[in-house]
Amino acid sequence: MSVLVVGLSHRTAPVALLERVSVSGDALVKLLHAVQRDACVAEVMAVSTCNRVEVYAEVDRFHAAVTAISELLSIHSGVPMEQLSNHLYVHYEDRAVEHLFSVGSGLDSMVLGEGQILGQVRSALKLAQEQGTLGPTLNELVQQALRVGKRSHTETGIDRAGASLVGVGLTLAERVLGPIQGKRALVVGAGSMSALSAATLQRAGVTDIVVVNRTHDRAVRLAQTVGGRAAELGDLARELAQADLVISCTGATDVVITADMVVAREMFLLDLALPHDVDPAVRQLPGVTLVDLESMQDGAADAETDDGGRAEAVVAVRGIVADEVAAYLSAERAARVTPTVVALRSKAADVVEAELGRLVARVPELDGRVRDEVTQTIRRVVDKLLHEPTVRVKQLAESPAGDHYAEALRELFDLDPKVPRAVRSIERIDAETSKKEVGR
Is the pTM of this model over 0.70? Predict the structure, then answer.
């Protein structure tokens, strides 16, 4: 089994296409189960955000899995394959691990270093766990990616070097409105991105913040965290008429802010939703500026050029990712050979026991003390003979072609790593390892 990634992102597809392919809620759950039902897929997880839609799977056949996942993305998004295929990318085995670690560290985000992707990957992991589409391979890989991402943000200046989408949006807003301190801000929505928006506004010195949300109680709770006030969704048009700066990210499937709700005057609207919350027609209104994810693809890059520490931080994070990928792949390859090593030792133990049994049957009068000494001697000889090959095969397994050494060992000694005794031994080793990890 190997890890496969099939997806598209802001790097390979226009936002308009990402908007069509993006799945959430029940649609995302259906996609997970549809992919898992394919014969060549064992585990699956999907990351679907405003900047990317990626399916991670453990598969036993590369070409068949790529075809199946691509077709399912087309079916569940309604985008024909001929439109989708040119924008898809595929990463397999080592490259899949490197890609996920890079994504978790913010190196593949629209704004390099943004920290929101960690929460999005964590949410994807949780959903796959809840839906039962995740197994040990992807679970360990994603958990490690989260640790790598956290390490990257902790040990480098990537958080400071790369602003979040909200931060970039506010930079663009100040180009239109001037300093945003003293401006009236309206946040539409009360989810995680809206909460980030409200907090970013407060840190930027905005004191007049209004939150509007379909569920009023959530709007109240969010407004209280930033010293603002909440308004009913029915009052959205009235609040828009008084706002200088609007940030919208509701997750709604239809437009939330229509052109007839907006008064023609100087105001800045930041639409972070996918699909769009704001009707693009508002751009035709005099004085009104609308920035959405598509227009931010250029604006984000412009906003980052002022940060002198960005390049150094990115180099540091790439170094961390490279080291972590190498360590993960080395450990993963070593783990693959464990069943073969256990099977070899199990077979040797069986031979020792059989020969000792034959010895006792042939020489029943053998003294107990002598028999124990003979038993220990035979076992020591076998252990010494097996020690060097098992150590070497574990070392060799860490190389890119390591599986071939384990395969050779299986052929030479006619081993079956799936025999019950070997499986029980592996389970015991795993249990002991888990106890040691808990005790650390």
Answer: no
